[in-house]
TrEMBL record:
<dbReference type="InterPro" id="IPR051646">
    <property type="entry name" value="NatB_acetyltransferase_subunit"/>
</dbReference>
<dbReference type="GO" id="GO:0004596">
    <property type="term" value="F:protein-N-terminal amino-acid acetyltransferase activity"/>
</dbReference>
<dbReference type="GO" id="GO:0031416">
    <property type="term" value="C:NatB complex"/>
</dbReference>
<keyword id="KW-0808">Transferase</keyword>
<protein>
    <recommendedName>
        <fullName>N-acetyltransferase domain-containing protein</fullName>
    </recommendedName>
</protein>
<keyword id="KW-0012">Acyltransferase</keyword>
Length: 54
């Protein structure tokens, strides 16, 4: 559903939820980002300890 709305899977977060379920960081570029540079997907999955929370 989200892919049809223009979202892309920016990164996969391994074991984000309890059990073995991964989390998906999905993003959609704003209209002013014509070249969609803000949503270039990462090439490898990340782990929860690599995430930054500000």
């Amino acid at each position: 559903m989200y892919l049809q709305l223009g979202y892309v899977i920016y990164r996969r977060v391994l074991r984000y939820y309890s059990g073995e379920e991964d989390g998906l960081d999905m993003r959609k570029a704003l209209s002013r980002d014509v070249e969609k540079k803000s949503i270039i997907p990462l090439k490898r999955p990340v782990t929860p300890d690599e995430l930054e929370y500000d």
